[in-house]
Design brief:
Length: 245
């Protein structure tokens, strides 16, 4: 079978069936972007929960993070795929299980999973900011929410950007879990092609297309990590003029 990897006729047929690969490529990008938005919004909220003085909010964060970090993503997606329609049926009172689209499953699957990791990144970033910043913001009349949004979170960007981009990279690769439930993503379409024709070229094409998405993100992660290690340059201001005696 490995000899067939260099068969020009197989490559020709593969390139003739690129429509399915491009369709999966576009679907993967859509799921990745929407899932990243979900993970960022929920992760920021949970990260803030972890740094508050409320024991209830900290407990919510801890339970969520421990659950999603210590259970495999494929198990979570399979459970949502099998049990989700029945849960929605019970909630809505429908006569039959409510079908969940593969797009929704993918977005919620990778979004909720990576939100646990994003929240830990946000928590680490917030804890790197001196506590006096929060006290100073509150003393100036900011509410706690405003203090987080306008004072604390902007100061964490230098610390959290590299790991956040790394999470985005992992999220893109984890969308391939949708292939297990016929999700229509890039990996599913590649697997369908290989199952139909028996040509391993389908997996090679999938690897190349994943590379096109992931390599720019990996390069961005390396750039941000390098930049974060560089000492900050002091801002140049006007040179004070000494007063004449």
């Amino acid at each position: 079978m490995l000899d067939g990897l260099f068969d020009p006729l197989r490559w020709q047929r593969t390139f003739q069936n690129m429509d399915g690969f491009w369709q999966g490529f576009g679907f993967t990008i859509q799921v990745s972007l929407a899932g990243l938005l979900v993970s960022l919004l929920l992760g920021i909220l949970l990260g803030v929960f972890a740094t508050t003085q409320s024991k209830v909010l900290r407990a919510i964060n801890r339970v969520y993070v421990e659950f999603f970090q210590n259970t495999p993503l494929p198990v979570q997606v399979f459970f949502a795929y099998m049990a989700g329609p029945m849960v929605l049926q019970a909630i809505t009172g429908a006569a039959s299980p409510v079908r969940i689209s593969s797009f929704t499953l993918g977005v919620m699957g990778v979004g909720l999973y990576h939100a646990a990791y994003v929240s830990e990144v946000i928590r680490t970033g917030i804890e790197s900011v001196p506590r006096g910043q929060m006290e100073a913001a509150l003393s100036q009349g900011f509410t706690r929410v405003q203090a987080y949004w306008y004072v604390i979170l902007p100061q964490t960007m230098r610390v959290i950007l590299p790991p956040l981009c790394n999470q985005a990279l992992n999220l893109v690769k984890n969308t391939s879990v949708l292939a297990l439930i016929a999700g229509g993503d890039l990996m599913y379409n590649a697997d369908s092609y290989v199952s139909t024709y028996g040509y391993l070229q389908g997996y090679i094409v999938a690897c190349v297309l994943y590379f096109l998405i992931c390599f720019p993100l990996a390069a961005l992660v390396r750039y941000l990590e390098h930049r974060s290690k560089q000492p900050r340059k002091p801002k140049k201001g006007p040179i004070p003029v000494e007063a004449e005696a």
